[in-house]
Amino acid sequence: MNSLSMRAMAGLPPAVARPAYDPAGVTVGIVHLGLGAFHRAHQAVYTDDVLARDPRWGICGVSLKTPRAIDQLVAQDGLYTVLTKGSEGTAARVIGSVREALFAGADRAGLIERFADPRIAIVTATVTEKGYCHDPATGALNREHPDIVHDLAHPDLPESAVGMLTAGLAARRNAKAGPLTFVCCDNLPHNGRMVEGLVSSFARERDPALVDWIRANVAFPCSMVDRIVPATTDADLAEAQRLLGVRDAAPVTAEAFGQWVIEDRFAGARPAWEHAGAQFVSDVAPFEMMKLRLLNGSHSTLAYLGFLMGHDFVWQAAADPQLAPLVERQMAEEIAPTLVRPAGTDLQAYGAQLMQRFRNSALPHRTKQIAMDGSQKLPQRLLGTVRDRIAAGDSYAHLALAIAGWIRYASGSDERGGAIDVADPLAATFVRIVADARGDAGPVADGFLDLKAVFGADLVAHYAFREAVRSNVVALFRDGARATLARHLGVA
Ligand code: CS2
Q1: Which residue puts its alpha carbon closest to atom 1 of ligand 1?
Q2: pTM
């Protein structure tokens, strides 16, 4: 069977959508760090939409940790398929915007050089929450992170995204290649401002003059990104092959919905992503808070409690007659009142639409995939909301149960005593907490609630908050998630 390639494109079935431009005529104007499924189903698609009218914005996709995606894409001339799945079936679209692919692990010099090219005007990134090596509770650079320790000692051989970005910016300054815009596309609060702070802290240690150059030449707009993109499965590979008639080793699967709200604060030229449906606004914060708290906060709640209740997939958890009402009430009663309504958005309708999106059974989105890296996700998804509720003197009972769900999950065993392989940068700490607690739920809760990196000094010291979470952790261990939820909904 042939593989997807520029040559194979002409023979694809008519139902398969493909670039409305000649990929060979595109030049590269964007460097993207983190060539995972999310980027390929989100920013790369918006960019694919604008390339027909402006061929300057091809993407150089960079993989930081593994060469796999790079090898697959290079073998396919950078082409891959997005499979959009919903109740109406699957639509296939070949994307041509990734024009170069580079594995940073093998070619740091090549990456750093790319920053010095004046035709590159934009760097985007999706390296996941933990990829920024920050303290999740405060957003400050974690100087003890092994990658940061390494990169400060070897700035020309960076391992971390922040180290690479700083090395790239230094090269750009030296080459006098002009201003640059960095667009963070990860689910972090005030993501542009946060990365600006991280890069400045890192650069200050290395070369204080670089900090001044960055301040004058680099813009860090904030952005809110949204599209549900589960990990690609073998069934997706088979489906892509069936629809295309050729083999695609790197398809991605996504829902039809997509949203990208970007702060209009660029240092130089940019693609007209608005023609692809992106919104440019002066303040992203209301959109970002709505998305992180309502979508991602609910996602994490469904993931932890859903997993404990035996649901492998989000669509099952979101259809559970006990869990769905918890998530709906959490949104309506506790999260929505903390939000500033973004212009043109009805929060109630947004919440209802989220439940529908979560219930998309054509997308096998694993609760376990969302459960990953909870220590990095909880602060912006659930804990900021708790802080606002506390400050307003309002209740946060549903949120306390969701947070307890994380602790119960991260303790490393399921309700039948089976081991959970907890993927989290703090996993070793969790193991120690559980061992020290000697099987006692209360001390397990106490150990987790002492984690300043997650809860921050304020919540660690907040007695009522600790008690609310602790009692739920004890109940989850003793009675299980289903009985705890039933009681909770009966009395809450
Ligand atoms: C999910 C997100 O994996 C996760 O933690 O909550 O990736 C979510 O699917 C996206 O943010 C949706 O835009």
Answers
A1: 370
A2: 0.97
